[in-house]
Amino acid sequence: MKARYATEFTLYPYAAVERREVVRHPVVIVGAGPVGLTLALDLGLRGTPALVLDDHEGPGSGSKAICFAQRTLDICDRLGARGIADMGVTWKVGRVFHRDDEVFAFDLQPQPGARNPAFVNLQQPKFEKALMDRIRAAQAEGAPIEVRGANGVVAQEARGDHVRLTVDTPDGPYDLEADWLVACDGARSPTRERMGLDFEGRVFEDNFLIADVRMTADFPSERWFWFEPPFEGSGASALLHKQPDDVWRIDFQLGWDIDRAAELREDRVRARVDEMLGHRLGAVPDYDLVWTSIYTFQCRRMRTFRHRRVLFAGDSAHQVSPFGARGANSGVQDADALGWRLDLVARGAAPEALIDHYAAEREQAADENILNSSRATDFMTPKSGAARRYRDAVLHLARDHAFARPLINSGRLSVPCRYAGTPGLGPDALDGPPGTAPGAPCPDVALEGGSLLDRLDGWVLLALGTAAEDVVSAGVAARAVPLPAGALRDHYLGGAPCAVYLIRPDQHVVARWPGFDPEAVARAIAGAIGRC
Amino acid sequence: MLITAPNIPDPDGFYDELLRAHAGLSDAESAALDARLVLILANHVGDRDVVRQALAASRVGGGRTTG
After folding, report:
1. How confident is the model at residue A91 (pLDDT cuts 50, 70, 90)?
2. In this structure, which of A46, A61, A81, A159 has its CB flanked by the most CB atoms within 10 Å?
């Protein structure tokens, strides 16, 4: 088998597979990255067998994604992969510079009471290892998850209610069948290419140089972003961001007409990095180049994330610019939205149509991410004289006038999509806060003895200031969790005296009412699982 | 609702002030000033509907339109 990229370390070593007969699996996931591993964990913990195939034996080298958002950390907590926030560098202050001047600083305070920070910076391979560690622990407790390294899918064939796969291994190929195939195989998705499917959207004509450098420098743990950096050869913008282990991510916007091979030569990269570090520190400190790469990006997605029995999640389905940290974070949310649904469908407890709900929600989320990402890119890379004039005017005004600061866009950082108008959502019968309307992810709130999100396990009927009982509908049991309004008032009641919320296993709100009506709850559950 | 009836006291005095703000500037500097001015005024108005009407009104007869 030919390696498509170098790996950072071995995480799921190849082991020979018994191959006497073709085995049918309920769910086969292609790609053991953040999205595939999250989905496998979610399914396995629910008892639905998940087989993950990866054509390598560990995470690809380099930092790749570095910014993991609160929502991702909350999802990991829900899946028992706790402590990831402590592995990373926590940051909340960002500074924006224009040439030599600081024009603006922002502070990403998470809402009070949230158990996780707004963001942590962590190298993607370490994130993947944390998920794999959790999978090993779950396997030991009997979760039906299997991860096969050096198992590369080389052929697939749609066969109505399943997909036939040919998998290449160091011991030669074998075939298997999947009721559901989930492609979590990244931006260059071999699955997507095998199916001849493509993206729709914009390609941005720009090249970005990433240099991850290791040094012990006296920079704070902040995100620094320069428009028109004052240091030589840095291009139109630059970014400096801290990762664990004294590694710093530096990103330079090089423009379109460049000689990639020349720009990646170590002396060229070092010249740029020297200029940036020297400019900030006065002298150039000793540093190691850990990883360098030049990338371009697109803001586009597949028209639909479901193709009969083949589903797409993460970068295989949608791509955005890295500014905003909406790549890996949105992919983990894809897995979050798919896991409980695929579990119900695979065990025959919900109709196939429920998978279309997944696609509708995550296509909506991808559009939101693409919109944010495109707008950030248009601000950072003005495409016309007028666009440049307004961009510069905003940066100029922001120094003295607060009104201009929200217009500065160096990436709107990833927040989860509040689904709206998508299938499966129930009524909003409460005159409550918009942040917890049906479709919204539940905001975390600190409660005595833990966080609210820790109480939202499975299907929950959250009853505030009123009583509710468990409701069973269409085979799904929603557990009543009565809580005093107290700390939950701001997010969940607003001016309302009491409320009942129906919350799905991915901790999104399905419906809400001013009181407990078991029949209304039963209808909302049935709708949420595609039964009406 | 965008006000399009005369609303500026001492129109000649206003026009004079506007031109004087641009005195001595290059075309590029003038264009930059206008961009800042638009942003400052748009923020003062604050009403997205009014600003949208103003954008539409200012495009009329302004060369190519994109429909």
Report:
1. confident
2. A81
Q: Which chain B residue lies closest to A404 (C-alpha atoms)? A: B39
Query: Residue A419 pLDDT > 70, yes or no?
Result: yes
Structure confidence by residue, pLDDT tens digits, A93-115? 889 999 999 998 888 776 677 88
In whole angstroms, what is the distance from residue A321 CA to residue A41 CA? 27
Interface test with chain B among A98, A379, A390, by most B beta carbons within 10 Å: A390
State the Rg of chain B over Cα.
14
Three-state DSSP class for residue A212: strand
Band of the pLDDT at A495, cuts 50, 70, 90?
very high
CB contact under 8 A, B31 and A389: yes
Q: Does pLDDT of B66 surpass 80?
A: no
Closest CA–CA distance from residue A104 to any residue of chain B (Å): 17
Give the gap in angstroms from C-alpha A390 to the nearest C-alpha of chain B: 6
Calculate Rg over the CA atoms of chain A: 24
Q: What are phi and psi of A260, to 5 degrees?
A: -55, -45
Q: What is the mean pLDDT of chain A?
A: 93
- Is any Cβ of chain A less than 8 angstroms from the Cβ of B40? yes
Helix (H, G, I), strand (E, B) or coil at A449: coil
Long-range CB contacts (within 8 A, 24+) of A484-492? A487/A113, A487/A445, A487/A446, A487/A447, A488/A445, A488/A447, A488/A452, A488/A464, A490/A433, A491/A111, A491/A433, A491/A435, A491/A436, A491/A443, A491/A445, A492/A432, A492/A433, A492/A436, A492/A445, A492/A462, A492/A464
Chain A residue nearest residue B46, CA to CA: A403
Which of A344, A288, A323 is closest to A477 using CA atoms? A344
Q: What is the DSSP track for B7-22?
A: --SSHHHHHHHHHHHT
What is the maximum alpha-carbon separation in chain A? Answer: 73
Amino acid at site B54: A
CB distance B39–A389 less than 8 Å? no
Max intra-chain CA distance, chain B: 37
Which residues neighbour A36 within 8 Å (Cβ) at sequence distance 6 or greater? A29, A30, A52, A54, A182, A184, A185, A313, A314, A335
DSSP conformation letters of A384-446: SHHHHHHHHHHHHHHTT-GGGGGG--S-PPP------S-TT---B-S---GGGSTTPBPPP-E
Confidence class for position A205, pLDDT limits 50, 70, 90: confident
Token digits for A330? 């949105």
Domains of chain A: 434-528 (3.40.30)
Q: Give A167's strand partners.
A: A153, A174
Q: Which residues of B touch A386 (CB under 8 A)?
A: 35
- Of the residues A98, A384, A403, the best mutation for testing chain B's interface (the one with the most B CB atoms within 10 Å of its CB) is A403
Cβ pair A393:B32 closer than 8 A: yes
